[in-house]
Structures are given as C-alpha cells and as structure tokens.
Amino acid sequence: MNNLAHKLQNRTLRKKRIRSQVSGTAERPRLSVFVSNLHITAQVIDDTTDKTIAYASTVCQQAATGTMTDKAAWVGEQIAKKAKAAKVKAVVFDRGGRVYHGRVKALADAARKEGLEF
Hints:
Layout: H1 3-21, E1 30-35, E2 40-46, E3 51-57, H2 68-85, E4 92-94, H3 103-113
C-alpha cells in the first residue's frame, strides 16, 4: 500500500470512529466540516430526521477570498449566521476525520465568535 492510500485509509477510519460517537439531534444538531484542496463546506445536520438545517460553502462564492484558512473562517461565520437564523444555538462538532488544527480550527473559532456554541 502506498503512502497516499494509507493516509486516506487512516482518515476514513478516523471519520468512522468519530461518527460512531457524534450524532446530531433536533436540540443539538451536528456541524459537519468537509475540506477539499480548493473548497470548504460546512453543514448543520439533524441526524434524527436526516435533514440539513444550514449549509455554507466556498463553492461559487466571490466573497470567500484569501488563503484557505481565511476561506474557512468565512465559512464559519456564514454557517453560524445561517444556523442562528434557523434558531440553532448549540451544535456538536464533527471534524470529519481531520485534525483540529489550521483550517478546521479557523472555521470552529469563527463560528464560536459569531455565537454558535459547541
């Protein structure tokens, strides 16, 4: 197994391990984060009804400029605003198998700064 396949397998295992413990409810939905090479996406999901409550992404957004960390902070602000508009105050954070550092941390800090609790 080459190095890239090994990294992907490890991330998939981490993601499954996290998802086995983290679940969103109607009172406290799950804030799921996905980071690709070019874009960052965040969703607030109620796992009991399998519905997405709020969604924010850098895809096709002109306002999201700068480095990927800046884009992550912008997505964090947007998802917090949309969640507050949907009357969601507290969430469970799902980092999606990524390390809580850099882009994921920037998104989480920006969401907390806008008033989202987790």
